[in-house]
Fold HAD family hydrolase.
Amino acid sequence: MIKLFAMDVDGTLTDGGIYMDGRGGELKRFDVRDGQGIAMLLKSGVKVVFISGRYSAPTQQRADNLKISCCINGASDKLKELSELCGGWNISRDEAAYAGDDTPDVECVKWAGLGIAVGDAHPSVRAAADFVAKAPGGRGAIRESAEYILKMNDGEEHEDK
């Protein structure tokens, strides 16, 4: 049973694009269906965590909007953050899922009991993953992953990769 779903943000929860206004402001696009998937997980009791390698105010704003369990914004060591969260919440690595899109996510994807790659992930992430979403990052991959986790937790049959 998955008790924690952690994910990268840029390229996983977003399409990887960052809009900069030349004055230090930043905008990101988030898919509302991904947000609904996160809400479904939270309602079912699964903790949801963002672990982003770079600090971004829009990431924190989205985390606050969704009322997720934890947002680590600007993590220098994603695997350390993930394993410490699991330890603090008494969640085993087999009870953790992690979704990512690029090489900084490979260690977390391999470490988690359920490693997830978004549909347009780097080949190294896809190779490390237990489940590869059909949808690309920022375009429904997290909703698809959430539904997969909910089916797993309900004991329904599922198909890998």
